[in-house]
Amino acid sequence: MANKRIPVIAGNWKMNKVRDEALQFIYSVNQEVPSKELVETVICASDVLLRCLVKRQGDELRIGAQNVHYEEFGAFTGETSPRVLETTGVTYVIIGHSERREMFNETDETVNKKLHTALKYHLTPIVCVGESLSIREAGTTNDYVRSQVVNAYKGVSAKNALLTIVAYEPIWAIGTGKTATPEQAEDTILSIRNVLAELYGNDVSERIRILYGGSVNTSNIEVLIAKPNIDGALVGGASLDPASFLALVTAAVRK
Ligand code: 13P
Predict the structure, then answer these.
(1) What is the atom index within ligand 1 of the atom nearest the CA of 174?
(2) Which of 81, 94, 99, 103 has the fewest CB atoms within 10 Å, measured from its CB?
């Protein structure tokens, strides 16, 4: 079956860039971003920057948040409601990033709740999964990631699953300069697609975009994206510089 999945390049700026730097970035990439029919291009920034980025985003660029609370409102000091994100105009949200799982006690259960909330508020969820180095070395990566996927998608219908994006980010590859080999990334991403096929059938699983993340840069994007099941990348460090980010987006167009 021909691969009809539109690739996605999503920059995760994490806790970087102040307003002026963020705007400078947006102004320098806006005109260069290819059509969203060729590649979906997303920048996920700190909450405080979202509104000003949405107001200035070019036609082909999309803005996303890096987290959302699963409740709609209430006494959750310091958290951001999905209603606020929706009215801010962002259209994507990262859910369950390993930094949030490791440092802010997010669990498979909260990831599942956040996935339901994001869908309800028309935010495209980028659901992150990925193993630690010890799990990789123990040879149990596919089982571990499988359980993260099954738990994240509990109660999510096939129709809604189609609206989601998965990002496979091995923890040992994040910010370390140590990328998974294209074969390792493809193997685990294929295993994720197989889990989605068990949950939703082949037709649905073949249409869900699955990204790789972890030390993606302009030197390794081509070999990663060349793999049949890798539909793009979730990028930290290499998304901070406009030229580097645009080079990643351009590489994805050639997929
Ligand atoms: P790096 O690309 O900096 O390794 O970060 C990956 C990541 O965590 C994206 O969400």
Answers:
(1) 4
(2) 103
